[in-house]
């Protein structure tokens, strides 16, 4: 598998995930399909989808370019592309997630506790008090870049132990993207009931409504350990 193949596959997965987010957002905003599952009663602002779309598209375009350039120069150094043994993908995905989510927790918490970062960068994302799925990427470009450092740290740490399997990377990317879409959906989700320590949509939705606490993205463990769990009134 060449670097070009890796670029095309990765960008294809990125595109597919965000098409899902686009359709999901449209259904949430403009139909009653998921209305009974909403967490907040506050209605969405009319026209909010098209107001948010320019920054969302800008971020996705920047992400695609950075991804393609990074893969072009480093994919053959980072990834091995053989079909792995059955246990390798869950092991590598979990390893990357633990490091990535730890980084996200502390970076996200800093953006709330540092008044400059909150006012100049993170406040853009918190315009979404009642978020819809695509608003996971409605952020200042620097914010998602800072957040993505966790992925590089996880992959880099894994490389110190073993080669990173490209298919494990894809699975990680798909889960990471879809989880961000889900926790910004403002909809109840039963998935977290079946996966230990998985952060439910309810936690992140409460974070958006209160603009504090529940700083982790994937796992509840970080907020529990550091005392930042936000209780619903």
Describe the protein in words.
The radius of gyration is 18 Å and the shape is globular. It is an all-alpha fold and 233 residues long. The chain has eight helices and two strands. Helix 2 (48-78) packs parallel to helix 5 (141-159). The longest helix is centred in the N-terminal third of the chain and has 31 residues, at 48-78. The chain has a two-stranded parallel sheet. The protein has helices at residues 3-30, 48-78, 88-113, 115-125, 141-159, 166-183, 201-210, 221-225, and strands at residues 79-80, 164-165. It has one domain (3-225).
Keywords:
233 residues, mainly alpha, two-stranded parallel ribbon, 64% helix
Outline the fold blueprint:
Blueprint: H1 3-30, H2 48-78, E1 79-80, H3 88-113, H4 115-125, H5 141-159, E2 164-165, H6 166-183, H7 201-210, H8 221-225
Helix pairs in contact: 1-2, 1-6, 2-5, 3-4, 3-5, 3-6
Explain briefly what this protein structure is.
It contains 8 helices and 2 strands; from the N terminus they run ααβαααβααα.
Number of domains: 1
| Beta-strand segment tally | 2
Compressed to H and E, one letter per element, the order equals HHEHHHEHHH
Radius of gyration: 18 Å
Helical/strand content category: mainly alpha
Task: State the helicity in percent bands.
Answer: 55-70%
Name the overall outline.
Answer: globular
Task: Note the gap between the termini.
Answer: 53 Å
Describe the sheet with the most strands: 2 strands, parallel
Count the DSSP helices: 8
Note poorly predicted spans.
Answer: none
How would you write the strand order of the largest sheet? Answer: 1-2
Average pLDDT level: 91
Beta-strand content estimate: under 5%
